Amino acid sequence: MSIAFLQDAWFLLLGVLLAGYAILDGFDLGVGVLHIFAKGDQERRVHLNAIAPVWDGNEVWLLTAGGAMFAAFPPVYASVFSGFYLAFMLLLLALIARAVSLEFRGKVESARWAAAWDVGFAAGSFVPALLFGVAMANILKGLPIDKEGFYQGTFLDLLSPYAVLVGVTGVALFVMHGAIWMMIKGDEVLHERMRKWAIGAWAAFALLFAASSAASALFAGERMTAGLGRPLALVALAALVAGLLGVVFFVVKRMPRCAFTCSSVTIAAMLGIVGLSLYPDLVPSTLDPAYSLTVRNASSSAGTLSVMLVVALVGMPLVLGYTIFIYRKFAGRVVLHDESY
User: Mean pLDDT throughout 193-200?
Assistant: First the structure.
């Protein structure tokens, strides 16, 4: 296998891992944001138990994506993790707060105790959802990377109006995704409430997505034009439109499983368009295009990529198989009992 083939394969695999994380952890982040708006303790417990069997496994996809980046594209890992250091610390803090809130909420029979952890759980879900979109916007726009691959900026530079707009768009998308998941997992009453949330979040996402697309044309127009000019972009665009229309159609028809599939397709298509717009760049430099980190100048050796590809081809089917098994095992509506969260 040629080095170029291996580099492209790992670019694709990294995209698959990020898409897997966005689809799987996206819905439980959305459920976490919705958690604070739940009516009463019983409904909040349903929210928690709807994601309890799967949330930690969903986050493994993000860890795996980070590991793949470290092994396949070490300079990218170094630049991104150093440049986004404070953002990653905030992300880590939010994820810890989320996990601790889920585990500790029911340990003391106190309304104030539960309410405090409810806030922690919602905040710990909102922050990662927001930061995921912020990160995507900054990568798409480009970062001030110098000749040595060092990030020449501050944490506040990452929170530009454009990046925050894309981040809020991501939150709306994940809330829609999470509301559809709760339509699947809740009883008839919760199903109807979440149906209204899903429709509202869909409308908010559609408006924010239109605004984000216009802003992307302004701040990352050259990359977006190049990406949309690729043949696969037509497939991704068609999937995005079909997914968005399918979500609202199936939610209105009260067919949440079909709506969830369409929502997942929408997320994957959006990330596909981002990937097509970036390729062959991984971290575009705004200081000088020659400083950009690409699949060609930032990859590991051919030997390393080859060995890892073999491991990935063996390991990924196992991960997918285990994920499918867990979701099938815990399929169906949530039924609370004494051992539930």
Answer: 95
